[in-house]
Design a protein that fits this description.
The protein contains 6 helices and 6 strands; from the N terminus they run E-E-E-H-E-H-E-H-H-H-H-E. It is α+β, with helices and mostly antiparallel strands.
């Protein structure tokens, strides 16, 4: 699980142009943004994403509960969620839903986080584009999250990397024995 900020500040990537010309990219650097929270099961590519306006403990509790409901977490179906040590992930005020167990990665180790590799996929429809308002971005990202749920093989190819099984987290969704 991880969060990613996307906003009105353009996401620029390299593009091909004719020799001797420069690419034109519209942009107006504004700092309004949305947050994307995503959960991924690297072995299957199953993924879930939510958009929200900010990240804090109440928002994270809402997203965790929505995720628990989506995967059917509970007494008979326990889910381990691997995440970083952001303040809202480690707060003593955080109420974790039944069946969800949080496992925090060591500090400064984004390379161990499979969900970090989702952001280039979620950003694709936003790259080198100009948006006038956050609602325009929200519409595009809602469609993109729905689209990524159907592209599990591509998500798996991006998030199931060589270090994942070695870490001992080979199965995130599991039923207790």
């Amino acid at each position: 699980m991880d969060e990613h900020r996307v906003g009105l500040k353009p996401i620029l990537r390299r593009v091909w142009t004719r020799k001797g010309t420069h690419p034109i990219a519209l942009g107006w650097h504004r700092f309004e943004s949305l947050q994307v929270s995503a959960f991924v099961q690297p072995e299957t590519g199953e993924n879930h994403g939510w958009l929200h306006d900010k990240v804090n403990v109440p928002t994270f509790e809402f997203v965790l509960q929505a995720f628990a409901d989506a995967v059917g977490a509970g007494a008979k179906h326990r889910v381990v969620v691997v995440l970083d040590g952001a303040g809202w992930h480690t707060s003593k005020k955080l109420v974790v839903p039944d069946g969800i167990h949080l496992h925090h990665l060591p500090p400064y180790s984004p390379e161990l986080q499979p969900a970090e590799r989702l952001w280039s996929l979620s950003d694709e429809p936003l790259v080198n584009k100009y948006f006038k308002a956050l609602d325009d971005i929200r519409d595009v990202l809602n469609r993109r999250c729905a689209d990524l749920k159907t592209r599990q093989a591509e998500v798996q190819g991006r998030t199931l990397f060589h270090g994942w099984p070695i870490l001992g987290y080979a199965t995130i969704y599991y039923d207790p024995v």
